[in-house]
Amino acid sequence: MKVKENSTSNYRFTIIVPVYNEEEIIYTLEEKLNQFLPHSLFQACVLFVDDGSKDNSLRKIQEICARNDHFFYIHLEKNGGLSAALKAGIDHTFSDYVGYMDADLQTDPEDFNLLLPDIENYELVTGIRTSRKDSFFKNLQSKIANGYRRMMTHDGVSDTGCPLKVMHTISAKRIPFFNGMHRFIPALILLQNGKVKQTPVRHYPRMVGTSKYHLWNRLYGPFIDCFAYRWMKKRYINYRVSGHNLD
């Protein structure tokens, strides 16, 4: 589906924030983003993607967008998961660069200014969470999943699950999307012969709400998806047009 260009084209950088049942933290998220936007290195806006929330998240997002000039939202008819929300956000972004962060504020929007200085020279700049504040068991799950993914993809990225990334929008729109895609963004950028840089960012404990991930979708999902990626890698079509007369 081709999406008509929209207000995000007036900005250089769009921050996508996927939201699913995060009503307890939405206003705190608004405050944090409002603190960041005035001194973002690039003129930036926020695009909330409500992923079919069943609580009051959508209503609060609509309130925020009504009272803030640089805040926008789209609402998905039903919950599709993080990869679907990211695809929808990227499809509706027309700024030069696009980034995303989780709504739980375990990463800080201020740290986008650690990633943005390098984005002109890399197709993707991704955060690496330092001094992670998750439980021992959650960290162990992530360590196992990351190690297995690196072995299967050879992407060289130590923390692909870090929810703080910035990409060239044109590169993001070329990513082949599928359920679980968000775990493979660096590898999928590399398939385009794009360059990836890793930058340390801060990490915080979850303030409210509960994680949407558990042992099943943190380990079993990546295990299966790695085989899908390996299949795709062998068949991926990558071309560049060197000339045309279509003007």
Integer tally of domains: 1
CA radius of gyration is: 17 Å
Largest sheet data: 7 strands, mixed
Mean pLDDT: 85
Number of strands: 7
Distance between the termini: 24 Å
Q: Given the helix and strand composition, which structural class is it? A: alpha/beta
Low-confidence stretches: none
Shape: globular
CATH superfamily name?
Spore Coat Polysaccharide Biosynthesis Protein SpsA, Chain A
CATH topology: Spore Coat Polysaccharide Biosynthesis Protein SpsA, Chain A
Q: Please state the second-level CATH architecture.
A: Alpha-Beta Complex
Helix content: 25-40%
Strand content: 15-25%
Sequence of strands across the biggest β-sheet: 3-2-1-4-6-5-7
Give descriptors for this structure.
single chain, 247 residues, alpha/beta, Spore Coat Polysaccharide Biosynthesis Protein SpsA, Chain A, seven-stranded mixed β-sheet, 8 helices, 7 strands
Overview of this protein structure:
The protein is of the alpha/beta class and about 250 residues long. It has one domain: Alpha-Beta Complex (Spore Coat Polysaccharide Biosynthesis Protein SpsA, Chain A), CATH 3.90.550.10. The protein contains 8 helices and 7 strands. The protein has helices spanning about 25-35, 55-65, 80-90, 110-115, 135-155, 170-175, 185-190, 215-235; strands at about 15-20, 45-50, 70-75, 95-100, 125-130, 165-170, 195-200. The protein has a 7-stranded mixed beta sheet with strand order 3-2-1-4-6-5-7, sandwiched between helices. Helix 5 (about 135-155) runs parallel beside helix 8. The model has no long low-confidence stretch (mean pLDDT about 85).
